[in-house]
Design a protein that fits this description.
The chain has two domains: 124 residues, ATPase, nucleotide binding domain (Nucleotidyltransferase, domain 5, 2-Layer Sandwich); 108 residues, ATPase, nucleotide binding domain (Nucleotidyltransferase, domain 5). The protein is built from eight helices and 14 strands. Bound molecules: beta-D-glucopyranose (BGC).
């Protein structure tokens, strides 16, 4: 089997709108073959999502270990929160759930931003592994991964920090930009407010900004005004899948 002979893993990123999986070359972080994407079932209950995950693994003809990421705090393989997916995830033993649907193989589930952060450390900008860095993903929500010399402090949820009377991600995610039809300039003002608060409380050495909207980083990163340097993530949307594949290959179980 391909996965057994070479350093290839498999990652799946469970998001609010799509569930995506791909084989990952663990030596360079590239996808091997096509990424498979299926729309997230509605409602996105654990059983419905696990069935979709099993379908992706079947379509990929993959029988090795599977790493999964989702927008939840995952502690000892139990989902503790659920953002943009069904609330019935809270308290779910995600390892048991996916093992039941994927059969006898190694499985690791971790938070999506944490996965993206460790992928960036391994294959992205070298500044992600030097000193303290706050890695953020801008998408449906704001995900956070706190890094120190490339090591992860897992399960931070800085997108939910209250700033004044609003939650950071409610105003400054890229979904908020779309929802409120904001220009990059107007949206960057909101992002600035959020980063200023993160800087006030955490003083990271650098901010790394990822998520799909980091593809257009030249339109907004130069408008950010925090003291620490802000640089765009290099892995963009690929990062969650890559980090998930890395986590299971390293036998990480947050
Ligand atoms: C969730 C986080 C997640 C982030 C990005 C937030 O709403 O609470 O767990 O990392 O969205 O998906």
């Amino acid at each position: 089997m391909l996965g057994a002979m070479t350093n290839i893993g498999f990652g799946i990123d469970i998001g609010g709108s799509g569930i995506k999986g791909a084989r990952v070359d663990l030596d360079n972080g590239d996808f091997v073959g096509d990424r498979i994407k299926i729309a997230t079932p509605r409602p996105a209950t654990p059983e419905a999502v696990a069935k979709t995950v099993a379908e992706i693994v079947r379509l990929a003809e993959w029988d090795g270990p599977v790493g999964l990421t989702m927008p939840s705090v995952i502690k000892a393989q139990i989902a503790r929160t659920a953002a943009n997916i069904d609330e019935s995830w809270i308290g779910t033993d995600v390892h048991e759930l996916f093992a039941r649907h994927l059969g006898d193989r190694e499985i690791t589930v971790l938070n999506d931003a944490d996965a993206a952060g460790i992928a960036e450390v391994a294959f992205g900008d070298p500044r992600a592994r030097q000193g303290s860095a706050l890695f953020l993903t801008f998408g449906t929500g704001i995900g956070s991964a706190l890094l120190i010399d490339g090591h992860l402090f897992p399960n931070t949820e800085l997108g939910h920090l209250m700033i004044g009377d609003f939650e950071a991600e409610e105003r400054a995610s890229s979904a908020a930009k779309d929802r409120d039809e904001l220009s990059f300039r107007k949206w960057a003002k909101r992002v600035n407010r959020v980063l200023a608060e993160y800087e006030r409380l955490l003083n990271p050495g650098a901010f790394i900004v990822g998520g799909g909207i980091s593809r257009e980083h030249e339109k907004w990163v130069p408008l950010l005004e925090v003291e620490a340097p802000v640089f765009p993530a290099q892995l963009r949307n690929r990062a969650g899948i890559v980090g998930a594949a890395m986590a299971v290959a390293a036998h990480v179980t947050p």
